[in-house]
Design a protein that fits this description.
This protein has 353 residues and is an alpha/beta fold. Helices cover 32% and strands 14% of the residues. Strands 3, 4, 5, 6, 7, 8, 9, 10 and 11 form a 9-stranded parallel beta sheet that branches. Strands 1-2 form a two-stranded antiparallel sheet. About 12% of the residues have low confidence.
């Protein structure tokens, strides 16, 4: 012990003491660096994990999603038959619970998407579309049209059609989308009569509302509506903003697109829309139809998209359209259903995709 005491005695001993302390600290640190951190205890695999409760997300239910939201475009990319009517896209008509009218489904599906014909939205070719009106007024002519024409030709169906479902079922099976023709007062009324339930300028929008709901309840499975009823176009009412805008708001609220007559504004407020560019069958001769189809084709090349109208499924009209469509792809054009030509509502402008 005296030797140890002598080793640490005096100033030299003090330096020896602190030197040993520093050496011990250095040795301990180096040892820990080599060994690494202490291992953590492992939880058994089946042990429950205690977590803080996660609050449920707040969901704001909206009975009527905004019409024509830019994130929701008309059309359907998948080829094949058009979907059959879905009860989730229907609701009782206000004031008439025995009738049903279209609506936006609770999951957000819209008729203008769900009932659209298939079309590849990535195509860069000019798009040319055809709307064939007057479907249902002659069963034989209508049946031949949906049999002979390619699926990309869209139909406008009269609300006055008796027993329309057999025709509509065949149209869906063959991939044709169809629109509802809403009877509206034409420019030549009363010489041209749109029928007993037409929307009239002599009535207020409130008085026309039950007539609109009647028309919307006449068919099922349609992607949109139009003012075109055969050769009648509803121009007088459609040209009055205070009359047509409530109609467009109703269509947009129900997820429906709209096709306007030639010369009408495009786009329109509240709903996805496209106006007709060329009427191809007035007069309805083979030579005139071929000439008008050539004009329509030229418009599509110049503008990127164009929509033609045939006012009735006459045999000569169906024959000339069928012959014309067979060579479109070779001429660098894409035959498109109406849903692929729609423009967003005037209040939500964006470039067509």
């Amino acid at each position: 012990m005296r030797g140890v005491a002598a080793f640490f005695d005096g100033w030299r001993g003090l330096r020896r003491f602190w030197g040993l302390i520093l050496l011990a600290l250095f040795t301990t640190g180096a040892t820990l660096q080599v060994l690494g951190p202490l291992p953590t205890a492992r939880r058994p695999e089946n042990a429950a994990v205690k977590r803080e409760p996660v609050p449920e997300p707040v969901v704001i239910h909206q009975a009527s999603p905004p019409a024509g939201a830019q994130s929701v475009r008309p059309g359907r990319g998948l080829p094949g038959p058009v979907n059959d009517p879905d009860p989730a896209l229907l609701e009782p008509a206000p004031g008439s619970p025995t009738n049903v009218v279209p609506r936006i489904a609770a999951d957000g599906r819209r008729p203008m998407q769900y009932y659209a014909a298939g079309f590849d939205p990535t195509t860069t070719r000019p798009r040319v579309g055809l709307l064939l009106a007057g479907i249902g007024l002659s069963f034989a002519d209508s049946k031949k049209a949906l049999t002979d024409l390619p699926a990309q030709v869209s139909f406008a169906v009269s609300p006055y059609t008796a027993n329309p479902e057999p025709l509509l079922s065949s149209a869906r099976l063959r991939g044709h989308e169809y629109l509802l023709s809403i009877p509206m007062e034409p420019m030549r009324f009363p010489i041209a009569d749109p029928g007993p339930n037409a929307l009239m300028t002599s009535l207020s929008p409130r008085e026309n509302q039950p007539r609109l709901l009647w028309a919307l309840s006449r068919l099922r499975g349609y992607a949109g509506a139009t003012s075109i009823l055969g050769a009648l176009r509803g121009e007088r009412l459609a040209d009055m903003p205070d009359q047509i805008e409530p109609v467009l708001a109703e269509l947009g609220r129900r997820g429906l697109m709209y096709v306007g007559a030639p010369g009408q504004a495009s786009p329109v407020p509240h709903a996805w829309s496209k106006s007709v560019d060329v009427v191809i069958d007035e007069p309805a001769t083979a030579a005139d139809i071929d000439a008008r189809l050539a004009v329509l084709e030229g418009m599509a090349r110049d503008r990127g998209a164009a929509l033609g109208l045939a006012v009735a499924p006459r045999p000569v009209t169906v024959e000339r359209i069928a012959a014309w469509t067979t060579g479109l792809a070779n001429r660098g054009l894409a035959l498109a259903p109406v849903s692929a030509l729609m423009l967003p509502p005037a209040t939500e402008q964006e470039a067509p995709k």
